[in-house]
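User: Round two. Same drill as before: sequence, then structure, for each protein.

Assistant: Same drill it is. First protein:
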Amino acid sequence: MKQKKTNWTKLDNASKYFPAVANNKDTKVFRLACELYEDVDPKVLQESLDITLDSFPLFKSVLRRGLFWYYFEASDLKAAVELESTPLCAPLYFKDRRNLLFRLSYYKKRINLEVFHALTDGAGVIWFMENLIYHYMTIKYKERFEGKIPPLNPRASISQKMDDSFGKNYSEDVVKETGEKKKRIKAYQIKGSRNEENRTKLIEGSMSVKAVLGLAHEYNTSLTVFLSSLLLYSIYKEMPVNKRKKLVVLSVPINLRQFYESKTARNFFSTMNISYDFKNNSSDLNEIIKSVGEEFKRKLTKEHLDKQLKDFVSLEKNMLARITPLSLKDFVLRIADKLNDRKITSSISNVGKIVLFEDFRDYIKQFSVCVSARRPLITLCSYEDNLVISFTSPFEETDIQKTFFQFLSEREVDIQITSNL
């Protein structure tokens, strides 16, 4: 009798990091939520999920451990929509447990898609959600939309969605950068009283995209540079005076699809660190914006990202790394993660604009995105003219959040604040 072949997939370069370092304090889970104007219909949501999964086969996978590497294994597990009952960004990956790496839940008017980061990144999860909402709308409101809404554009074939874009865009011919030496940085660390049971505190501000963009333009900068600078400023305002000699460093994820030819629905991102020295530079927001803008311009170049990509993949291709047992790899990654932690104060991630058919806007209020957090950090996304900025934090204290949103409010940005605790 012929044995059935197991359908398995190697993890991409970024994915290998997450199962090694995920824990109850930082689950490496992130959530994309869609808030409707009407209560969610769970039966329609389940039907929409079943259809969407046919276009995203990796979401049907479970994560397994080999002797040397993790790998995804195709499964026949049923993904079931559930009423929200777990804490925000609760764990999805459990060592040696065979389970799906995402959950789809609902509560009143909100649809929550939570994903373990090894499965995909922010761009990939938005793509999945856009497909899900398309099917939900066209099933739920079939009579209204029949014949009016064009077929869903798949954007890419299933094989393109499954691409490992790190390996595909790796080149050994990248010229090493010169003139920039890596410095040993010990960044300012935000401290606080931890929330009970390691729960993540979420504070969201919903506001007009046009209002915040107009404010950014007053400072002659982009939305992301403006909000990054405002986060640096807000952290500085709440720093103890005797700590202000330390650098404040933000980690900023970069969607690499905009720099390389890629239609993958898997992870394909990098990060850059943006720092500001308040000891030797002005705390005036104009000066912070100028410095941050220059760093963005210098680091968001194809040449700089080519070098990063080469460094990532070269380490993976190293023969010693390849033959090292997985348990030892995990141990090394956890140590490296803790050392890297000392170089970062916070992070800001703008996952971008969510685009759906215009006729859907009568049913959709807004989208929001948030992540599990080992430190206070920001994630944001927009839909139509609704910008939602989400602060997640493991701490009870909310001084930085208050300073950030108060700055915007005092400049006539109307903000609706919500919180989960």
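Second protein:
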Amino acid sequence: MMVFMELAKNDRTLPASSPVRAAPSPTAAARRAPWLLAVGLMLTAFNLRPAVSSLSPVLAEVRDGLGMSGTVAGMVTAVPSLCFAAFGVTAPRLARRFGPAAVVTGGLCAIAAGLVLRSLAGETALFLTASTLALAGIAVNNVLMPVLTKRYFPDRVGTVTGLYSTMIAAGTAVAAALTVPVTRAAGDSWRVGLGVWAVAAAVAVPLWVIAERRHRATADPGTGLPGQGPAAATAPAYRVTRSRTAWSLAGFFGLQATAAYVTMGWVPQMFRDAGIPASTAGLLLALIMAIGAPLGFVLPRVALRMRSQGPLLAVLGTCGLAGYAGLWIAPAGGAWAWAVLLGLANTSFPVALTLIGLRSRTTAGVARLSAFAQSTGYLISVPGPLLVGTLNEATGGWHAPLLLVAALMAVQIVLGFAAGRDRCVEDGA
């Protein structure tokens, strides 16, 4: 509540006595509704992960119900990254054509529809198709979150990034914790346990419909992003693919996404294979994701105060290595400790989002960098969950998969130092 009050203080309008009665600027229009925009961003953020985290606690039941092999199940856990890479890159183009509020609304509708259809699927192909629809909606909204933050709250990037990172973690944790209880309450129906999360996406749609109507007139037709205006049109042209900073950030983003989706997709199964009940495994995943709620709000603000974010990312990566070592040595005996360590490692995600906002000087630059880093990063992360499932099926255990993810975490730490340098993509592009 105090944070929203702080955001509301940014409300600035022309004095009534001003002799110039010009049309209000997009930024001023945005600031007249800080509560609407902030709440819209938070509700959207809440819906960016339940489609993924609700699946892993009941993956065994879904596999039995649809007859999935281990390799196909690994493909299911890789689908989020593939969709985020394939569809995320379209977000800037869609935003220019229809406006970001309309795109966010469409994304939420796709999430809701996909989750409903997935819960009704009777075969693996339809299950994957419905999941793809939901994940496509998540993908475009993923990319637009840093863009909207930079545009509507340019002097509160750390605070707003922290807020929506917290809501992403909250949505992830709530879905992970409640899917199994909902499934059991519905007569052990995993379909109800997965489909119920469509409600959360549907609730957020009306808010963005209002926002889209309110800000449609303020969108610059040249960019589709409210408030871009002439400044954006005259921004220096450059290719983000020529920037080492952009590639370092994309690589780091991809490896932290690999770790996150391996955690969401396979760590509950690791716990279950160690003899931990399914409900407890779901709670352990919920703990992993819940840790990101408070730290997701704090770490972006800490990162903003650091000249280089590399040391912070190294500490978080080391926590991940320690968590993997614990899963290797005593997965059941120290399960709660390993969950805490993996939860700390997963908070690299809000820092990565903060870096996207820091590594470009303009909103247009953030849009380019966000689309490139997230799409490329998620493409990099596609093989990880699939390889984990394949290695598990080939070896009959989790040691080989853990060696793989530990090696990737070590590379992630190195790339974190490169992405954390105090440089912008415009500097060398």
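Residues 30-221+238-428 form a domain with the Growth Hormone; Chain: A; fold (CATH 1.20.1250.20).

User: Perfect.
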